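[Meeting: bench + compute handoff]

Bench side (C.D.) handed over the final construct sequence. Compute side (W.E.) agreed to return the predicted structure before the next meeting so the bench team could plan truncations. Sequence as handed over:
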Amino acid sequence: MSLIKFLDIKTLGDERGHLIALENNRGVPFSIKRVYYLTDTQAGVPRGFHAHKELVQVAVCVSGRCLMKMDDGLTTAEVWLDAPDKAIVIDKMIWHEMHEFSADCVLLVLASDFYDEQDYIRNYDAFLELTKHA
């Protein structure tokens, strides 16, 4: 299993501009129950630093760019999200961090479920311990 999974996103458009659609259970591998986005992130301030027990997400920079750092407890990988047609899946039990946000970055996230604080793992050592027993 690859740590970085890109979605196959089609860009439609012509001389007027582009349209990119993300749809439930089509391009997005789950039913979307929550949509949120990060914007105006201050220079040098990373975000994330958690994993989810069950939640699956898709992340895409609709504007600007940021560096995604992903970790499954055994392997780490980094990928720049730097185009509106470049989206990645953040599976459950993947520690993820977002770094080096550009000033114009808008990071859109689609989630498989509603917000639930109980689903978060916010301590990296606890995350590593859970991955050992998975």
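W.E. noted at the follow-up: The domain at 5-11+31-132 is CATH 2.60.120.10 (Jelly Rolls). C.D. will use this when planning the next construct.
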